[in-house]
Amino acid sequence: MQTPKVSVIIITYNRAQLLKTAMQTVFDQTFEDFELLIIDDGSPDDTENTVKSFHDPRVRYIKHAQNQGEGGARNTGVQHAEGEYIAFLDDDDEWLPNKLQLQVELLDAQPKQVGFVHSALINFYADTGEELEKKRPVEAVSGKVFDRLLQENFVILSTVMARKECFDAAGPFDLSIPAGLDYDMWVRISQTYEFAYIDTPLIKYRIHRNNLGSNFGLQIRGQEAFFNKYKAYTSIPGKPNSVRYFKLGLLYGFTHDLKTARRIYLKSIRLYPLNPKPYVAFLLTFLGQRGYQNMLERIVK
Q1: Mean pLDDT value across residues 289-300
Q2: Do β-strands 131-134 and 94-95 pair in parallel, antiparallel, or remain unpaired?
Q3: Contact criterion met (CB below 8 Å) for 182 and 105
Q4: Closest C-alpha to 262, from 243, 239, 245, 238
Q5: What distances in angstroms separate CA 149 from CA 79, 140, 264, one per listed residue?
């Protein structure tokens, strides 16, 4: 097969049925010049047979002998990608049929400094199928977005297409970050390349209600690692960083570590004394876990 225009990368672990649906949305694309790399991170289920049930020469199946985690699997995909562009799809998400077509056309028409395109999306709930369109202001998420991106991760991985050279320049996914390593990658790419944004939903992002807010410990370790890596930026006084630390304090509160939450809220206050939320959250930590939890909804609104 000749060199494809796009390398589509799906990493997967033990999700054969969801993977089958995700793969089908790739084959349903109106744009057909792609390879599909399935990186099986050591699944013990029927993943291999699921992949082989698609008799398409564009599929390349790579299985890790042992589970290497999200970062290791993504790095394997990028290392084996042969396309000019790379697009990611999480194994529990779905693409709409014109996703690749619109993004290839956009990047082909842009100068090289525009290396990255993402899009609006449709959230859908796994249990009910309820859908909700999600867009962002175009001016806030396109162009030179490094400073804006440091404040908030506004990029959903399954919406992404980027020039392969972006990953050559940025280097591999950082395995020292236990959660949010895709966010770290987008930040590094944005230091060199401009972003483009398509204000049309191009994916369906699956939300598992029973998983919302789970694994707070992993989220905390990921955020702490990110803060340390970008300390020169995340320690700058101002509202954006105050909000970031406030949210970290909430995570510590969810894990019943009110002492650390209190310390993080004070950091949030020092960064931007005019932000009222960390003051309220700080005082509520003295109510004990039950009182704090009971008031939590009022804090985050």
Answers
A1: 76
A2: unpaired
A3: no
A4: 245
A5: 25, 9, 21
Question: If we measure between CA atoms, which residue out of 160, 172, 167 comes closest to residue 75?
Answer: 172
If residue 179 lies in a helix (H) or strand (E), which one and from where to where?
none
CA distance 270 to 275: 10
What confidence tier does 16 reach under pLDDT thresholds 50, 70, 90?
Answer: very high
Q: What are the φ and ψ backbone dihedral angles of 34, each rounded to 5 degrees?
A: -145, 160
Q: Name residue, tokens 């672990």.
A: 13
Amino acid found at 177: I
pLDDT at 212: 44
Pairing between β-strand 114-125 and β-strand 85-88 as defined by DSSP bridges: unpaired
d(CA 16, CA 214) in angstroms, rounded, equals 22
Q: What is the pLDDT of residues 185-230, one digit of tens each?
A: 999 999 999 999 999 999 999 987 544 446 889 999 999 999 999 9
CB-count burial class (<10 Å; 0-12, 13-18, 19+) for 30: exposed
| Residue 286: partners with Cβ closer than 8 Å, 6 or more residues away | none
Residue 2 carries which DSSP code? Answer: P
What 3-state class would DSSP assign to 43?
Answer: coil
pLDDT tens digit sequence for 145-165 = 999 999 889 999 999 999 999
Q: 96 and 83 in contact (C-beta within 8 Å)?
A: no
Integer Cα distance of 25 and 22 in angstroms: 5
Strand 161-163 to 34-40 pairing: unpaired
- DSSP string of 52-120? HTS--TTEEEEE-SS--HHHHHHHHHHHH--SSEEEE--TT-EE-TTHHHHHHHHHHHS-TTEEEEEEE
Q: In this structure, are residues 282 and 265 in contact, taking their beta carbons and an 8 Å threshold?
A: yes
Q: What is the pTM of this model?
A: 0.91
229 touches 177 (CB < 8 A): yes
